[in-house]
TrEMBL record:
<dbReference type="Pfam" id="PF13191">
    <property type="entry name" value="AAA_16"/>
</dbReference>
<dbReference type="InterPro" id="IPR027417">
    <property type="entry name" value="P-loop_NTPase"/>
</dbReference>
<keyword id="KW-0067">ATP-binding</keyword>
<keyword id="KW-0547">Nucleotide-binding</keyword>
<feature type="domain" description="HTH luxR-type">
    <location>
        <begin position="898"/>
        <end position="963"/>
    </location>
</feature>
<dbReference type="InterPro" id="IPR036388">
    <property type="entry name" value="WH-like_DNA-bd_sf"/>
</dbReference>
<dbReference type="InterPro" id="IPR041664">
    <property type="entry name" value="AAA_16"/>
</dbReference>
<feature type="region of interest" description="Disordered">
    <location>
        <begin position="887"/>
        <end position="907"/>
    </location>
</feature>
<feature type="region of interest" description="Disordered">
    <location>
        <begin position="87"/>
        <end position="143"/>
    </location>
</feature>
<dbReference type="InterPro" id="IPR000792">
    <property type="entry name" value="Tscrpt_reg_LuxR_C"/>
</dbReference>
<feature type="compositionally biased region" description="Pro residues">
    <location>
        <begin position="893"/>
        <end position="904"/>
    </location>
</feature>
<feature type="compositionally biased region" description="Low complexity">
    <location>
        <begin position="90"/>
        <end position="101"/>
    </location>
</feature>
<dbReference type="Pfam" id="PF00196">
    <property type="entry name" value="GerE"/>
</dbReference>
<protein>
    <submittedName>
        <fullName>AAA family ATPase</fullName>
    </submittedName>
</protein>
<dbReference type="InterPro" id="IPR016032">
    <property type="entry name" value="Sig_transdc_resp-reg_C-effctor"/>
</dbReference>
Length: 969
């Protein structure tokens, strides 16, 4: 497809008309690499009226420059003659004159084989024309023949060829023509009168040979010079439609046009590559256009750069090495060019079409940078980067920019390179790029001594960076560093770099490193600070790594009670150890809930909520407060932290999202809990915070279990695959419970029960018996009810109640009493349900209270008390974003057995319902929320469906007597 070359074609057609009237001309068409000169010239005869025109064409090539008269031979080889062409007619009727003049005699050999001597057979059969190559002067095959005798003969021949029909002589890539052919073309260009010819030549801008004197002799004689323009956006759209078979979206077309600069060769390389990669011309694929680097295009550009003069190649190499850091003049300095030399080289690159803008050292597309790199050997590439690093360091560029150059350098410069790399690593860590930091440190490590403290410190820094994404490498390098350090304190400090945030699992190798470091320090009570603080932190790490050992859990409870005075919380190490002990005691369920919460509050009040970093103990304390059903202190602390973050304009980190989701889940606020859990889960899936993956997966799985959302549970299990969750027992347990939930929804109650019981046995085996954190028995009891095994269900309910009493958490006791009451039935069951409601009124879990109220309302069945219980239950549930369906709440109607998916209102639906319940019209609600009435109607319709009601009247009735729902619900 030839696009947008109408004006150029028209100019040639006009020149042909003039040539027919005896006015010959030379037209020059120039342009950068890939602009479409050759394609246009190849198509030109088919787009012209050449019925009475004789066409001659030649394509010059780099490899044929040593072939004398190569282009001339191509011109005559392309010529088609027949017997009707009377080349001698002009001679018979013309006047004799100088060679080359009209009517001049044909030079000897010019028509050799065409006119046979008298009495001899003709050289050609009567029905065939002469062969074009037989028309050429014999002297052309003799390298020693003088041009003075050949060039006039050739002009005379062309003149006679043009007598019958005008000539259209096409020469592509004039800059690569051989010298003898250029002599003819320059000779002809100055003597076009009476030849009746149009000579059309194309020239590549920026090519070194375009400045050859013989080429300039031809181009200077041009009667018209035209530079081919880039394709327009509309033409780009046509090429996209041709490639993909459909029109492209505007953003995609714009990206294609910007990436190619309207250059056809770029477009014809990019579009097939995009198509082969499965991309479609959509706006979402616009980013892929600039990133694509087709290999054929890269090789063609590399060939073009190889043909350039040394200054141009050097500047292109400097620009490729510097990349985006090429400030004005910097690439020229790196290439060893002065201002004039750099300006000239930039001019050549621009004429070649390789720059985004004239005079700016910026390539038009990344593939040009790849091509510039391709022309360098590996040794040259490393040397360029070493010089670039030195230059950037001297002019004061940031350490990370210098370090990127040092990574590719052959060798590091003495003195400053290591310092720059370590500074760059610190900068990368501060901006949250640990993998970049590790790359810089590994490069430094290659040139560091094999022994000694310097190497040990490098290994420790490298391990610190690696811990964020590769715990195994972190432990390996810490082990190497410990072996190089001399003092026990230094070895212990190094060991503490392993799993510093209590979120990552520590391997047996890492545990052994910690244990040996702790043994080297000796007993804690004999140490003074800072060694004592280091020892306490090591003890905290070791105890936390042993949290799945029942003996260690029991030891943690004993450790908390071994001294009559309060555990110290004055230092960070003391707070860290106490948090670990409280966490272990909470998992075991052996420490009274009120005591665990009180001690956790002592730790938390010493932890500032306004710091930039997430406190290492936060995940531990979150589990303690949640397991104790005492979350007010934690909720206030998290609220203060969020307020500080919003004020400072900081984004909420994934660990804080997990904490907020856990607190909201402990209150039964499922809608908002899910929002924060989803945010934390997205961070985990993006691998931006690998250490928080297990916590994020666990809290979203807990939301799925609490809300009975089967689809959410399946999504969490699918997303958790391949993440760093396999070694986290909390995470794997909750995922297995969501799997059991799916089995139950499909009616596979036996399989679901086996899965739940297996989870319970594993938790019991490691001593994790906290019924708040691990409510597996209630799920097993409901499944036993489904199967009709009431005896086993009652036995398990008694176990749950006993464990809840040991812990003393209201939500655990209330839930257990509700289970016992439901299994007993009658007056005894009703009494147990009343006790459950009473206990749960002291719990933070509003949704669990709503469930107990609903169960008690069904037990009471009729009367004012049942209606009041039902109304309070519905109000609490709606505040939690989990409205009960109205038909389920009517007294006397038994609810479904077993856990059921509970409909949830979105935050917007909750607010719309609250405003509607307060008596506002749809228009007033729309004005309040700043949305349209149709949006309000949509939210109300969805809410009515979830609530199981038909309209606003039933909504007001449902909310009557319970007060208005807050729009924050």
């Amino acid at each position: 497809m030839l696009l947008e070359r109408t004006s150029e074609t028209a100019s040639v057609q006009e020149a042909l008309h003039a040539a027919a009237d005896g006015r010959s001309s030379l037209l020059l068409f120039a342009g950068p690499l890939g602009i479409g000169r050759s394609s246009w010239l190849r198509e030109l005869p088919r787009r012209l009226d050449v019925q009475h025109v004789r066409v001659m064409r030649a394509n010059a090539a780099v490899m044929e420059q040593d072939f004398a008269f190569g282009v001339v031979h191509q011109l005559f080889d392309s010529l088609t003659l027949d017997a009707s062409d009377d080349l001698d007619a002009s001679h018979a009727s013309g006047d004799a004159g100088e060679p080359g003049a009209p009517g001049a005699p044909v030079p000897p050999g010019a028509l050799a084989g065409y006119d046979a001597p008298a009495g001899e057979a003709p050289a050609f059969p009567p029905d065939e024309g002469p062969r074009p190559e037989d028309l050429l002067p014999a002297g052309m095959d003799d390298p020693s023949a003088p041009l003075d005798s050949i060039l006039p003969d050739l002009r005379t021949l062309l003149t006679r060829l043009g007598r019958a029909r005008p000539l259209l002589i096409l020469v592509d890539d004039l800059q690569w023509a051989d010298a003898r052919s250029l002599e003819l073309l320059s000779y002809l260009a100055g003597r076009l009168h009476d030849v009746r010819a149009v000579l059309v030549c194309t020239l590549r801008d920026g090519d070194p040979r375009a400045r050859h004197p013989l080429v300039c002799a031809v181009t200077d004689a041009a009667t018209q010079v035209t530079r081919l323009a880039p394709l327009s956006s509309a033409a780009t759209g046509q090429l996209v439609r041709e490639q993909f078979g459909e029109s492209g979206e505007e953003e995609f077309l714009g990206a294609c046009h910007r990436a190619s600069g309207g250059n056809p060769v770029f477009l014809r390389a990019l579009l097939p590559a995009l198509d082969a990669a499965g991309a479609r011309p959509r706006a979402t694929q616009a980013g892929a256009v600039a990133a694509l680097r087709p290999a054929p295009l890269r090789e063609r550009l590399a060939d073009c750069l190889r043909a350039q003069a040394t200054p141009v190649r050097d500047l292109a190499a400097a620009m490729a090495v510097l990349g985006g850091t090429a400030a004005p003049g910097l690439a020229g300095r790196l290439a060893g060019l002065d201002e004039v030399g750099e300006s000239c080289a930039l001019g050549v690159l621009h004429r070649l079409g390789l720059l985004a803008a004239e005079g700016v050292p910026d390539f038009v597309h990344p593939v040009v940078r790849d091509a510039a790199k391709a022309i360098m050997s590996m040794t040259e590439y490393g040397s360029w980067h070493a010089r670039a690093a030195l230059l950037l360091h001297e002019v004061g560029h940031p350490a990370e920019e210098v370090a990127v150059q040092l990574l590719a350098a052959n060798t590091l410069s003495d003195g400053w390179s290591g310092t720059v790399l370590r500074t760059a690593a610190d900068s990368a860590l501060r901006r949250g790029a640990p993998q970049e930091a590790a790359r810089f440190l590994r490069r430094t490590l290659l040139d560091s001594p094999e022994q000694g403290e310097e190497r040990a410190l490098l290994l420790i820094d490298l391990a610190t960076a690696e811990n964020a994404y590769d715990s195994a490498a972190c432990e390996r390098h810490i082990g190497q560093a410990v072996a190089l350090l001399e003092t026990p304190h230094d070895r212990a400090a190094a060991a503490l770099r392993i799993a510093p945030d209590f979120l990552s699992a520590v391997s047996p190798t890492g545990v052994e490193i910690l244990r040996q470091a702790a043994a080297g320090l000796g007993p804690t009570d004999r140490l003074a600070d800072p060694a004592r603080g280091t020892a306490l932190r090591l003890e905290a790490r070791l105890r936390h790594s042993a949290r799945q050992d029942p003996a260690e859990l029991a030891a943690a409870v004993r450790r908390l009670g071994e001294r009559p005075e309060e555990p110290a919380v004055g230092t960070g190490a003391e707070r860290e150890l106490l948090a670990v002990l409280l966490h272990a005691a909470t998992l075991s369920g052996r420490l009274p809930a009120h005591e665990a919460a009180r001690q956790a509050a002592r730790v938390l009040e010493r932890v500032p909520a306004t710091g930039p970093e997430v406190p290492a103990v936060l995940p531990l304390l979150t589990a303690v407060f949640t397991g104790a059903d005492r979350i007010d202190v934690l909720a206030d602390w998290l609220a203060a932290r969020e307020h500080h973050r919003r004020t400072a304009g900081e984004a909420t980190d994934p660990v804080s999202h997990v904490g907020l989701a856990t607190v909201l889940l402990a209150r039964g606020r499922l809608t908002h809990a899910r929002e924060h859990a989803e945010s934390a889960f997205e961070y985990a899936m993006s691998d931006r915070h690998g250490d928080s993956a297990a916590s994020a997966v666990a809290v979203l799985a807990a939301v799925a279990l609490e809300s009975g959302d089967i689809a959410l549970g399946e999504r969490v299990r699918a997303g958790a695959g391949g993440r760093r969750t396999a070694d986290d027992l909390v995470c794997t347990t909750l995922l297995r419970l969501t799997e059991a939930q799916s089995h139950s929804a499909r009616g596979e109650f036996a399989v679901a029960l086996d899965t739940v019981l297996a989870c319970g046995r594993r938790l019991e085996a490691v001593g994790w018996r906290n019924p708040v954190l691990f409510p597996w028995r209630p799920r097993a009891i409901r499944l036993m009810q489904r199967r009709g095994d009431l005896e086993s269900a009652r036995a398990l309910a008694e176990e749950e109640y006993a464990q809840a009493c040991i812990l003393g958490a209201p939500v655990a006791i209330g839930r257990a009493q509700q289970l016992r009451g439901g299994l007993r039935g009658g007056s005894e069951g009703t009494a147990l349900l009343r006790d459950a409601v009473h206990v749960l009124r002291g719990s933070a879990h509003e949704l669990e209270l709503a469930r107990a109220l609903r169960a008690l309302a069904r037990a009471v069945r009729v009367g004012a008390e049942a209606r009041e219980l039902q109304c309070e239950s519905a109000t609490l549930a709606m505040a939690c974003g989990v409205p009960w369906k109205a038909e389920q709440d009517r007294p006397g109607v038994p609810g479904p057995a077993g856990p059921q998916p509970e409909p949830t209102l979105t935050p917007t639906e909750s607010r719309v319902v609250a405003l509607a319940g307060s008596g506002l019209t749809n228009q007033a609600i729309a004005a309040e929320l700043g949305v349209g009435c149709r949006v309000v109607e949509k939210h109300l319709t969805n809410s009515y469906r979830k609530l199981g009601i038909s309209g606003r009247v039933q909504l007001l009735a449902l909310m009557a007597g319970a007060g208005k729902i807050s729009a924050r619900a």
